[in-house]
Amino acid sequence: MAKYRLLIKPSAVKEIEAIPLKRERRRLVERLVKLTENPRPFGSEKLSGQEKYRVRQGRYRILYSIEDQNLVVYVVKVGHRKDVYR
To answer: What are phi and psi of 57, to 5 degrees?
Structure first.
């Protein structure tokens, strides 16, 4: 399987930087890197009515879209589970 490129929306970068615990930020970044190897890991779900997926990392969710023809994973939003879907 080919490796995907990871593109992160600037607002998603700010959301990651706003997470208070360094340990949580590190885990999120590790999870993002793993998405380049397998953009549809076990536990990921396609969001209904959208062409986006979500993956859980602790209390946080990563929302992203996949472009298989270009081998790109585009991270749209990262946030706490209570706020991320709004």
So the answer is: -140, 95
